[in-house]
Amino acid sequence: MASIINSISFKNFFNYYGDYYDTRYEFEEGVNIVVADNGAGKSKFFNAFIWLFYDQILDSDDKIKKNIKDVAVKIISDKAKNETSIGDNVDTGIQIEYSTGRFKYQITKSFTATRLSQKITDFNSWQITINDVQVNRTDHILPKYTPVYDADEKATIIKQLILPTLRQYSFFQGEEVDSIIDFGKKSSIEEAVRTLTDISKYEELVALTKEFKDKAEKDLNKQTKANSDHNDRLDKAIQVKQHLEQTLSNEELRLGEYEKLYDDAEQEKNDLEQNFSNAEKRNELDNKIKEKNKKTNEVAEEYTNFLETINNRFFDGSFSWISLGFDNVVEDFQAKIQHYRELHFEKKTLKNINDPNKHFHFLPIDSPDTVSLKNMIDHEHCYICNRPALKGSDEYDYIVKLKNRPTDIKNDADYVKNNFSNFFGELQMNAQPFYNKISSIEDSILKTREREDALNDRLTKLKKELKSLKDQRKDLLISGSDGEDSMTIINRYKGAIRRIADASYQIEKLRESIKKLKSTIVTTEKEIHDLRPSNIPAGYLLNYEISTDLALATERAKNRVFDNMVNLLEKYANEHFQSLIKYNDLAGGILKFEKSPSGSILFNYIDSSGNIVHGSSEGFQRMKKFSVVMAVISANTTKYNYPLLADAPLSAFGSAFTEGFFEAVGEVFPQSIILVNDLYENDDDMKLNELGKKIIKKDFIKRVYINQIDKNREQIDRTTDKIKLK
Amino acid sequence: MTSQEFKSQILVKRPRYANSRIPAIDILANKGSRKSEYSQFGPIYELYIYAFLLGLKRQIRLPLPPRELTSDFGLEIGRWKRDSTLTDFLLMIIFTKNDEIGFDWNELEDMEATEITGIVFKVVTFIEEYANGGLEYLHGLLDKGELDNSHYMFIDMYKR
């Protein structure tokens, strides 16, 4: 039966302030989620298990695992420390309950700190005593726990929650997923296969049966010698066989060396190929980035320039913002100039009494202009009021009078000391561009803002596009080094190809030779059999024959199991991969497992037309690794019996992968406890984002907690509070 | 005196500002080079015209300190925005305020040259005192940190 974590509780453990019953998180078989914003206790939660398994915690300041005793003062809740008087004690601990089919266990690890002086964060202010691990057990029938006293038994109980060899696949934080499997090293996948499946049992069986066979043969030979007189021929045959076996063993050793050479060379070639294709893609992207950069800079400059010249619109006659709000000035001026002219011409009239009417005109000089006036006179029509002005009529004379104004004025007698008529007239004429715009200024300001918004939108869009290109470029960097020049890459690549060819040739030759040796050994064995005297006790011969058959059969069985395993791995990895990317619009490729010429497992990601895909984003790489780990677990013939405990496994996935992730882990692991911030939304009442709300409705999600920390409080007052949503 | 001569008398004047306004002017007009955290005008005279009309809109008229405590910005009114008729618009505004300045349009026409010089002086003082009022208003906001850090700061202030 699988190990299932029933609960975890804390006592004054970091911000998990309070006693165990205050801070109890309960979990069930299936998927359990603890959602917390950054800084709200995810890693601390995970640290409780590091304490449980290793008596260490991961110091968040320098990301180094340290022994509990050395960092105890850091672990105690600051609030609890602050509330402890000098001379008093404070307890800090973690308590985990888990069940297997038969038993339920409760494990408590804790220490007691005695306060010695004032400064609470000073390590010298506290005396630390690590308490004994307490392990209690109940058998599901009796409700009462009984203590386990034996230290070895306690250690075993802790160990079997997640076996140490499996913890790398089942107990990890964020980027640790990356180190689960290194796709660059084939041995890494094999190691995972060996650890998580029972293939190694077959290997043990192969070794064991070979040992039986060797032993049986030795016994048989001993009997043969004891029973035959002067059997030099048999001795010789046995010697020949021994020699052949020695040669075979040497050849197999050499084969192993060449296979390693082959693998290394092939790995280098693959790495370089990736580098090659990346170099090409990089170049293409660099050009696109350059172009986009140029465009972005142009628009940015236009935008800045636009903003900086907004104030020019005050004085530019096309906008004339400076006249905003001076509507009255036009009317005032109009009234004043009219009044001025009345008085002005009154004076004039008094001086030139002979023709008073001649001098009354309110239009400034040049308004209308002389050419227009001449036109009106020629056509005997007033184009201002669009009425006829026939020769001899008053209207006609008036137009003529307007046209003659400049000469008339000259001929006028002085009637004022300073004639400013033109001064005022010109002001009214010339200021037109400014006061004519007054009514449209509000609109012009609005349009300016619209233009700014449009420019800003354009700039934002360009910046986004640029960022996307740069992200793509960054993804390429992950899978290839930037520093090496192309000549070195080409030479290394050529070298690797040559070594692959050499090794391939040698491997083939050696295999041929091994095959031949093996068949010679078989004929030699036949000869030995024929040379044996017939009076050997039957049991020895039978024992030898059976053990030989058994060794052969186990060897074949192992190979068959291994082949099946590779097929199964491929099947499951693709199933998991598909479900992980289910909610993503990614064009899904295929994960391909193959046996290499050297007999190891090759792993590739190929697209629909069979090309190997290199590069791709960090989140995507992580997704592939996770698929393979889950495939290895699924491919195992025995059920995986341990929970998955993961802190921020989604950090590089991207939200579209999140939903698929929870579904997939639910299918593979009997229980998962996932600590995430990806579903957190501070502004929401439930503190969950849309995706979070969607996910928690699913049946396979059993428990959901939200961690809350009041960041406005001082550190010494901070506590992690939990809300149980499901 | 002709219209042209009268106009010239005004246009050759260089209105002045109090020396205490220099820091604010440095911040609010970039003179083609410096940038500040606030929206700026280009040449000082643009800021000066703006301040003059802002003072006028908000009716803040403030006398200048004695001449030795003031500066001009080396530019006669006639050279403000020379490629436009902006000064005509400004004069139009100023001449509607003749009652406040203290003259009558028609009476101007019968004045002796010295009297006209006196009126021109009054006109320039009118500009200076309202500009001083406008500058004081800007200066105050700047000191209190109440200037809006927006590219539309000047027009927004002007609308109100």
Layout of helices and strands:
The complex is a heterodimer of chains A (726) and B (160).
Chain A: E1 4-11, E2 25-26, E3 30-36, H1 42-54, E4 56-59, E5 64-67, H2 68-75, H3 78-83, E6 89-99, E7 104-115, E8 126-130, E9 134-138, E10 146-148, H4 151-159, H5 167-170, E11 171-173, H6 176-180, H7 186-196, H8 199-227, H9 232-308, H10 327-351, H11 370-379, E12 381-382, E13 387-388, H12 394-403, H13 405-411, H14 421-430, H15 432-435, H16 441-478, H17 486-531, H18 538-580, E14 590-595, E15 601-606, H19 618-635, E16 644-647, H20 655-668, E17 671-676, H21 690-696, E18 701-709, E19 720-724
Parallel strand pairs in A: 3-17, 3-18, 11-16, 16-17
Antiparallel strand pairs in A: 1-2, 1-6, 4-5, 6-7, 7-8, 7-9, 9-10, 12-13, 14-15, 18-19
Chain B: H1 3-11, E1 16-18, H2 22-28, H3 44-57, E2 70-72, H4 86-96, H5 98-101, H6 105-108, H7 113-144, H8 153-159
Antiparallel strand pairs in B: 1-2
Helix pairs in contact in B: 3-7
Structural features, described:
The complex is a heterodimer of chains A (726) and B (160). Chain A contains 21 helices and 19 strands. Chain A has 726 residues and is of the alpha+beta class. The model of chain A has no long low-confidence stretch (mean pLDDT 82). Chain A has helices at residues 42-54, 68-75, 78-83, 151-159, 167-170, 176-180, 186-196, 199-227, 232-308, 327-351, 370-379, 394-403, 405-411, 421-430, 432-435, 441-478, 486-531, 538-580, 618-635, 655-668, 690-696; strands at 4-11, 25-26, 30-36, 56-59, 64-67, 89-99, 104-115, 126-130, 134-138, 146-148, 171-173, 381-382, 387-388, 590-595, 601-606, 644-647, 671-676, 701-709, 720-724. Among the domains of chain A are: 4-162 and 646-724, 3-Layer(aba) Sandwich (Rossmann fold), CATH 3.40.50; 323-436, no CATH class. In chain A, strands 1, 2, 6, 7, 8, 9 and 10 form a 7-stranded antiparallel sheet that branches. In chain A, strands 11-16-17-3-18-19 form a 6-stranded mixed sheet. Chain A has a two-stranded antiparallel sheet with strand order 4-5. Chain B has 160 residues and is mainly alpha-helical. The longest helix of chain B is centred in the C-terminal third of the chain and has 32 residues, at 113-144. The mean pLDDT of chain B is 89. Chain B has one domain. Chain B has a two-stranded antiparallel ribbon with strand order 1-2. Chain B is built from 8 helices and 2 strands; from the N terminus they run αβααβααααα. The chains are: A alpha+beta (726), B mainly alpha (160). The A-B interface holds A 307-308, 310-317, 321-326, 329, 332-333, 336-337, 339-340, 343-344, 416-424, 426-428, 430-435, 445, 449, 452 and B 1-4, 6-7, 39-42, 46, 49-50, 53, 57, 81, 84-86, 88-89, 91-93, 95-96, 98, 105-106, 108-112, 116, 151-152, 154-155, 158-159.
